[in-house]
Each structure stands twice: as structure tokens, then as C-alpha cells.
Amino acid sequence: MAPLIELNHVRHAYATASGPVPVLDGLDLSVNEGGFCAVVGPSGCGKSTLTRLIAGLLIPDAGEVFLHGDRVRGPRSTVGMAFQNPVLLEWRTILQNVLLPLEIVPGALKGAAAIDRARSLLSLVGLEGFEDKRPSELSGGMRQRASLCRALVHQPEVLILDEPFGALDAFTREDLWQTMHEVKEKEPFTGILITHDLRESLFLGDQVVVLSGRPAHTQFVLDNTRSHRPTLDDLYTPEAAERLAILRHQIEIAQGRIPQEATT
How many angstroms separate the CA atoms of 156 and 213, rounded? Predict the structure, then answer.
């Protein structure tokens, strides 16, 4: 299967009053069409910068970003994004919030077709019957489900999730992990997940990429392909424990707690 997302030797720095601050340095990443890549790394290593480069919200200082072989040179309507804060508009109902991208994206569904699409997604994530509620009338987990629907409503080819479950309690988070797999089976997108939760990365990602400390490069890639949809019980198997130990070890290297030479 051909890569849909490719980053080749990407470098990026932010300008500050005291000079440029390098964030990414020679980063390489490849995600196959239909794949789901989880990205982990130390705080401040540039994970969110990576998502903005893929979405075309930033242009790298050096290197190239490609979607379907086309170089990314600006914002792409074929990318959907969901963040830790759902940022739903209180003056709009949940259905109206989900419909918002269809009011903006050129060529998107309109009228009854748009409403049917939004209602179908809300039903898929368990929000049927809540279409006319306001965001303040929903729990945090329900608002995040609505945010996911809004990110998917225009049928993006790439879905970027930037720590969307980080602010939720453990039970709600695990419930949404399972919902994500249900959504992935019905919605044809290629996913990028930014997370600090190693269990989350293993449960959702078919590959897990560990970024080094800043300025970040691709330090390690774990192949996490599976033959079946995972259950929460799969996180407590010997194989899962071994993979978690590998990822924790790589994070300690990225944090500078363990010398790179100690692993060779």
C-alpha cells in the first residue's frame, strides 16, 4: 500500500526575540493510506508542530511534506483535525456545530445531504438524540465525540487527532478508544494521533513513532499491526507489556535519561 503521508528530512524552527528555536530536525515519517499512526515523544519535542505541517498550517523551513504525492504548500481541505479542547460553539446546537465544516469547505455536501451525514456520524458515536442540545448540556466525553464528528463530517482523507482524549477521565478515555476503532471501520481516513499515553498509542495505532527530544527527529518506529480489532483486554497481554516496555525505554532515551549507546 502506497504512503499517503510522507515527511522527508523536515526541519522547522520558531522565531523568537533571542533567535530561532529549532523544533524539528531532519524528521522523516511515512504513513500508508488507511493507516493509523500514533506519535509519542517528550513534552515540547514538536509533536503538535508536526500536525500543523501535515495540515499545511505551517510550511517547513527545510524538507518536504507530501499528501498523496502532492507537496503540501498551504492549508488542505482534505484534512480534518480534533484537539484536546473540543472548542464547540455554545450558540450552536451539537448538530449545527458538526455541520460547521460543510459551511466552509468548497464543494462539500449541502442541505438535506449535509444534515443526513452529520446525523449519521452522531449516531455512530452514540450521540443520537443529542443533536439539538447545546455544548454545555453535554459531558466532556460527549463533547469530544461531537468534535470528532465535526472533524470527519466533510469526509477528509487525513484525520489528525492532537491529544483529543488527554483531558478526560480514564474510563471515558478508554470508552472513546473503542469508539475510535468503530469509527475507523466505517470511515475511510488515514489517521495521525498525537498522545502522551503509551497505552493509547498501542491501542489505537498500527504503528507508533517515537520522536526524540527537541529538535526532534524520528527516533524509533514500532510496528503494531494486528489481525483483529483490539479489546481493552489486549492491553494486559504479555505481548502488550513487552511493547509498552520498549516504548517506555525509547521515551527515556528521548528524555535523555538513558544514553543512546546503552541500547546498542
Answer: 31
